[in-house]
Specification:
binds adenosine-5'-diphosphate; 190 residues; Arc Repressor Mutant, subunit A; elongated; 2 domains; CBS-domain; 39% helix
Length: 190
């Protein structure tokens, strides 16, 4: 019937119908034929977005030590061309985060930047907002918006029998830049 309406042969339509069925826009039933599944392009967009995992798009984190000087942290921000540095303790577990503005704030004061360690100014555990590699990028974006931060460390949780509960190893990062790039790519697809 569709072929008739469009004045085309069934054979000519078959590849298009196959694509529409594969993407879920049409459903095919034996004897009934093809019918519209009722899904809108917005449904597909939402479904697609929620399938993108943090582990598929995470970036390389730049990690410094707690005793790195503020001066060296600022140099690292420029050299590595990033906005956020992750700070590890001596056992290579996540201890804190320093952002551009954390560094600016201390730098505009009249202090000796070479002598002060980042450990003094960083945002510390347990106040760090993290994300799991298996989580969706959509969830990461929600956390970024909710907590008003530019970046989240992608972490593996390691159970700690001590007082602190859980410790984290940083294995990546999700940033606003990251998410903007995904947004641009999605715009090309849909
Ligand atoms: P900026 O301060 O350059 O605007 P952010 O908005 O990312 O960058 O940082 C705001 C504050 O939140 C800073 O004090 C920073 O140390 C802290 N911060 C950054 N990322 C996180 C995070 N993932 N979890 C908790 N605190 C964070």
């Amino acid at each position: 019937m569709i072929a008739e309406k469009l004045n085309l042969s069934r054979a000519a339509l078959r590849p298009d119908l196959a694509i529409l069925t594969m993407t879920g826009i049409l459903e095919a039933r034996q004897r009934v034929g093809y019918f519209y599944s009722g899904k809108t392009i917005e449904n597909f967009f939402a479904e697609h977005i929620k399938k993108i995992k943090v582990k598929d798009v995470k970036g390389v984190p730049i990690i410094i030590k707690e005793n790195t000087s503020i001066y060296d942290a600022i140099v690292t921000i420029f050299l590595e061309d990033v906005g956020t540095l992750f700070v590890n303790d001596d056992d290579e577990y996540l201890a804190g985060i320093v952002s551009r503005k954390d560094l600016l704030k201390i730098a505009i004061g009249n202090v000796e930047l070479q002598k002060i360690p980042v450990g003094i100014i960083m945002t510390r555990m347990p106040n760090i907002i993290t994300i799991d590699a298996e989580d969706t990028v959509h969830h990461a974006a929600e956390k970024i918006v909710e907590h008003e931060v530019d970046a989240l460390p992608v972490v593996v949780s390691i159970k700690d029998e001590g007082e602190k509960g859980v410790k984290y190893k940083v294995i990546g990062k999700i940033t606003k830049t990251n998410i903007t790039k995904i947004f641009v790519e999605l715009g090309k697809t849909f």
